[in-house]
Every structure is written in C-alpha cells, then in structure tokens.
Amino acid sequence: MNQSIKEYIVSINSAIEQEDFGDKPQELYEPIRYIMSLGGKRMRPLLSLLSYQLYKDNIKEVIPASIAVEIFHNFTLMHDDIMDNAPLRRGQQTVHEKWNSPVAILSGDVMLVKAYQQLIANSPTEKLTEILEKFNRCAIEVCEGQQIDMNFEEQEQVQEADYIEMIRLKTAVLLGFSLEFGGILAMDNEADQALLYQMGVNAGIGFQLMDDLLDVYADQDKFGKQVGGDIIANKKTYLLIKANELAQGENSIKLHDWLKAQDFDNEEKVNAVKSIYDELHIKTLTEAKMNEYFEKAFTNLEDLDAPSEKKNIIKDFFNYLINREQ
Amino acid sequence: MNQSIKEYIVSINSAIEQEDFGDKPQELYEPIRYIMSLGGKRMRPLLSLLSYQLYKDNIKEVIPASIAVEIFHNFTLMHDDIMDNAPLRRGQQTVHEKWNSPVAILSGDVMLVKAYQQLIANSPTEKLTEILEKFNRCAIEVCEGQQIDMNFEEQEQVQEADYIEMIRLKTAVLLGFSLEFGGILAMDNEADQALLYQMGVNAGIGFQLMDDLLDVYADQDKFGKQVGGDIIANKKTYLLIKANELAQGENSIKLHDWLKAQDFDNEEKVNAVKSIYDELHIKTLTEAKMNEYFEKAFTNLEDLDAPSEKKNIIKDFFNYLINREQ
C-alpha cells in the first residue's frame, strides 16, 4: 500500500483514539469506544482524505471532519448487528451480545447524533447546509438499503437489478458521500464533486460484488470469516440471484432443494452449491459485473479535473483493494 | 384551552398529516406515518409556536420548523418502546409489536435523520449552526436520560437528586429546546433564549413529577392508563424514591416486602403501597417539589422581555395542563 495512504490511516486511527465520545452513563459511551476501537479499514474517512488530496495539500485539517463518516458507518454496524442477530463483528462480540439490545439501540442513536456533531463542528459554515443535505439523503438511503436487504430474505426470488439497487443504497452511497465530502471541503467544482460521488457509488457496488465473490471463492487461510457462510445461510448474494436466474433442469431442482434443506452438512452444502455455480459460470459472470462497476469508477476518476499523480494514488489504492484478497 | 392554542394544534396536526415522510420500502415509512398519526398533545411543537408568538405574529411560518421536535420526540418513543418492551403506545400497538423490532429500530433511525432534515430545511442559514449545536446536545441528553432511567431499574436505591437529574435529561431538556428553538427563530435576545430554555426544563421536571403523582392519585375514569401501574411495576418514581428515603420501622419493612413480592394481587399491592405513601405524606411532598419547579418556570416566564398579554397565553396553557387532570 502507498506510503501516504498508510500515514493517512495512522492519522485517522489516532484521531479516533483521541476522540472524546463522552463519559456518563458509561453504558452509553463504552459501547461507542468499543465498536470504534475494533478497527477495520477506515475506508470511508480515508476516501474523504483521498478526494481532498486531489485538490489540496493540508490533509491534516480535514481529518476531524472525515471521522464523521466513520462514526456514521459504525452506527449502522451497531444497529444492523442487532437486526441481523449477529454474534460477532470483526471477530469480537457485537455490542448487543457484550451488553444488551437496549444498550446497542441507544448507543447507536447517540453515535448518529455524534456523527452530525462531528460533521457540523468541522465543516465550513458556508457549505454546511449543502453538506448536511447530502449527508441526510445518504443516511436515509443507507437505512432504506438495510430494510430492502431484510425484505429480500423473506422473498423467494430477487431480480438482479433490484439487488444492485439494494447494495447501491446499503453500501455504495456512503462511499459516494465520503468521496464527495472530501471534494466539497477542498473545492467548489460541482462537476468534480458529482464525479467523486459517482466514483464512490460505482466502486462501492464493485466492492460489494467482490465481497459476495470472496465469500465463496476466497482462500480460507487469508479470509477472516468462514468461506461459504453466505451459502450456508441462503444469503441472497449476487451469486445466488444469478444462479437462481440461470439454473435449469436438474441444476434448478438441486439448487432449490439445497435452499429448502433443513438438516445438512455445511461443507456438503457449500460444495454442492459451489459446483452448481461453477457449471453456470457464476464466478465469471460476477467478475464481469464487478469489473464493469470498477471500470466506471476508474472512468469517473480519469474525468476529474485534478493532477494525474494525485489521481494515481486513488487508482493504486483501488487496485490494491481489488487485488488484495483474490 | 385558549382559542389560539387550539388553532395552533390544528395547524400542527395538519402539517404532520401533509408531511411526505417517504414511500419505499413501505416497511420503513408506514411505521413513521403510523406513530406520527397516533396523536398526543403535540406539546413540543406547540411550545415552539408559543415562544415564537411572544415576539412575532407570523406563526404559520414556523410551523414546518416546529414539526422537527415532534418527529424527534416520536423517534425517542419508537426506540424507548422497544427497550421497555412496551406493548401499547397511546392505546395502540407499539411499532415493534405491530411490525417487529428491526423495523422499529430502522424506522426510528430514519425519523432521527428526518428530524434533522426538517430542522435544516426550515431554519435560517445564519442561525443553523447554533440551532443544530443546541439540538445535538439536547438529543444526546435525552439518550443519556433514557440510559440512566434503565440503570435505575437495576439499582436498589436511587437518590432524589439523581432522579431529578434523570428526568431533566430524559424529558425536560427537549421541552427546553422546543421553547428555545421558537425563541431563536423569532429574535436575537440571548438572555431571553436562555430563559425560554430554563422555563422548558423547569416546566418539564414539574410535568414529570405530575405524571408520577397522577399514576397513583388520578381519577381512574379520567386517566388513560391503569392507576397504580408504576406501583405494580416497582417503577422508581419520585414517590417511591421519597418513600424509600423516609420509611422507617414497620413501614420500611412493609414497603420492602411489597417491592420483593413475586405473587400478589395488583389491587392489594397498589392499596398497600398507597397507604404507606399516605402515612409518609408523599403526595404533599411531591406536590411541593412539583410546584417548586412550576414556580421557577413561571418566574422564567415573567422575566422574559415580551408583552404580558403574550406571556399570559403561555401561563394559561401551563395552568390548563396543571389543573386538567387533578
């Protein structure tokens, strides 16, 4: 990874560590410090810094503002984990498991307010309304995406276009806002701000498709989670949606039977579904769709009115992420 | 009730009815429309209008802004009801009962963002930062109050001062903000803005003490809920905290036994605890404390630099609320 990106991540982590989230009652503030300390890639604030550096050099000045998107992201994780009954987050107990659901609901609520506080305290007054309007829209869309995702779990069939729209809302628009936010803080070129947003959305859809792929095709030694977890849980990923769409005859019956199976050996199910995916060339199809979105993101990047050497930092970072786990 | 107040409430209700909260996915937006349509006194937006009319006449203009505090209030109700496992809200099913907890968590999250949207879209740009900073502080304090209230239920003893601080946070600061908000929208007199906030906080503490009293001493025919509900649930109200503090000898043992009792007849418990309250003059003590806060609120009102006939509208409204259910 590029040296300046490593330095950005160190600065982001240090700013998060020094953040005074609050004190009493401790049941409210300890979970916030806990989830914020679990790490992660710090992708969203990093994206704000990366778009800012396209236009300006004084990166340190926007680190406090960038933390807002990380707080917001962790608020969504804390609440999503309750809704999804998830026991673990980044290999550690989730907040509702370590404490309880009321604590996770309320700490999450406070985090959402803290995200606004962080945004408001660190945005220039003359751009505050614009920033908040865009942030509000993004925040609502993320919630819409989560609800649509939950709805999908109750549905027999999901269409490809609906799935792409769901991941756009649930995951991609926040990457879009994070990049756009850095751009708004740096300059006034509205065409570039819109391109930054589009780049984030396109890359975000690409990264989610990559996550869907990795769940099935990752190297178990390098992968943080159990390979095949989505298959075991019948999670409606791009791969399953595509397989449902394309499977015919015996494959369709086999896939359907595995989706309905109650008692099964995990490994057997993963291998069986995977071999259906292979016969249907699901990996290739997903890679094609993923690359289509990455291509769009790279085109957005090229179209920006910024120095090539600065754009290359973002290009290299995306390529690093794309190649890291494959 | 004063004719202009009735008109304000009609205008508030009509603005809420016309509000376009959103459409799809319907699981996210129907619960918002549902809880917002359950009614209630619309006390918080009404307070914003009442403080605004002290200084300006064009009340209609601030109705959209005032709706923000009602949306925020209903967000807290939706989430509190999950945490408190409450089956009913204003006599109707709570959102997590009618739908489910994930829906109530996520719809609540969207409502919090919608409260910000409503505030941002309807506040003058030059006052936006100030308004948002005060709103953020208030929102966080309301969450702190809810957490402290939940903590109290796990504690053997609660001190009077801690209880007053809890209800200040959980209930009173939002009434304070609602009044201050109307003041900020109307004028620039910071001393008056601070007095409006104080008036709301003092009145809010008074109203909560009144609620505690009514739960035990209300006329069942007029009271919306079951009289004695707090006693049955061992809810740590001002009355119980005061009784715990003052009970000695046999009264102390009896009270303690009733608090520990597992199987009991509801009516018998309510009557027994009530007779301990009576022996300890808890009603008189609570009324004295409540009136102390109402007096403070009325002094705050008197100190405002506004026309007496306008102040009298607020005075009459508070007196109407104070005398209505007693």
Automatic annotation (TrEMBL), chains A, B:
This is Polyprenyl synthetase. One of its GO terms (biological process) is isoprenoid biosynthetic process. Its cofactor is Mg(2+). It holds the Pfam family polyprenyl_synt. Belongs to the FPP/GGPP synthase family. The keyword Acetylation does not apply. InterPro entries: Isoprenoid_synthase_dom_sf, Polyprenyl_synt, Polyprenyl_synt_CS. Keywords: Magnesium, Metal-binding, Transferase. Gene3D superfamilies: Farnesyl Diphosphate Synthase. The keyword Magnesium applies. One of its GO terms (molecular function) is metal ion binding.
